[in-house]
């Protein structure tokens, strides 16, 4: 099922239970008496609790049209999610050497033709990484000076003028957690900038919960849905009694 279809079903299900859907971008979250005030321009909402599901923004390589490359499968962002779709392809991973090789070795279970590209520019100089690459038959490449992606895959051009075609490329360049609404209230984050939560998805700010990629390194819909169920249950149990 495509992501857009899944979102549409979620919206329909929520509306069947009287939930009002508002398309807006919250740009400010404040602590006020009785809870929180969320603002989106001139609009504002008050709530006793807030659940953040603001996600991350992946850092992408310098490409003319990265979104189109993702849409056609030339550029992929999650090997755990979709490596099976790239099985037996020429697969490349672009990252700092150790990260690139670690992900490339994972992908070797899906293809015999896996490549690791140095995104840092320091080169493949670590003897341990060279041994691991040889043992797992991962092909090593320097940092590309140019990348182009089309519906047929991606092509890397290197400083010596050589070129290499890949059916698909996984850039592992990190991501930016969209945690600013929470950190503006003093919420704790870890070394990756992701929000620290407890077993009930509560941040360090009372009444503020966070779910999904903004708190988890496993960026999958199933994980986010599980987080949401835990957070919603905790919120419900924590609200004052509202007898029917």
Automatic annotation (TrEMBL):
Question: Which molecular-function annotations from GO does this UniProt entry contain?
Answer: oxidoreductase activity
**Keywords, comma-separated and alphabetical:** Flavoprotein, Oxidoreductase
What InterPro entries does the record point to?
A: FAD/NAD-bd_sf, FAD/NAD-binding_dom, Ferredoxin-NADP_redctase_2
Domain spans labelled FAD/NAD(P)-binding: 26-228
Q: Does the keyword 4Fe-4S apply?
A: no
- Organism equals Agrilutibacter solisilvae
Q: What PANTHER family does UniProt report for this protein, alphabetically?
A: THIOREDOXIN REDUCTASE 1-RELATED-RELATED
Q: Return the protein name.
A: NAD(P)/FAD-dependent oxidoreductase
């Amino acid at each position: 099922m495509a992501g857009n279809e899944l979102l549409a079903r979620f919206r329909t299900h929520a509306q069947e239970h009287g939930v009002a859907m508002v398309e807006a971008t919250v740009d400010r979250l404040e602590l006020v008496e009785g809870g929180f005030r969320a603002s989106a321009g001139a609009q504002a909402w008050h709530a006793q609790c807030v659940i953040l599901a603001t996600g991350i923004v992946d850092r992408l390589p310098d490409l003319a049209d990265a979104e189109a490359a993702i849409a056609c499968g030339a550029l992929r962002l999650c090997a755990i999610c979709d490596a099976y779709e790239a099985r037996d392809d020429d697969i490349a991973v672009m990252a700092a050497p150790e990260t690139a090789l670690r992900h490339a070795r994972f992908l070797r279970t899906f293809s015999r033709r896996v490549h690791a590209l140095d995104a840092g520019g320091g080169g493949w100089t670590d003897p341990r990484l060279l041994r691991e690459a040889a043992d797992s038959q991962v092909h090593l490449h320097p940092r590309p000076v140019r990348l182009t992606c089309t519906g047929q895959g991606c092509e890397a051009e290197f400083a010596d003028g050589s070129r290499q075609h890949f059916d698909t490329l996984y850039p592992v360049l990190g991501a930016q957690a969209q945690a600013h609404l929470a950190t503006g209230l003093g919420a704790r984050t870890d070394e990756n900038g992701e929000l620290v939560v407890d077993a009930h998805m509560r941040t360090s700010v009372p009444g503020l919960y966070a779910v999904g990629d903004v708190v988890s390194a496993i960026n999958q819909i199933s994980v986010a849905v599980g987080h949401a169920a835990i957070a919603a249950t905790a919120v419900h149990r924590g609200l004052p009694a509202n007898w029917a």
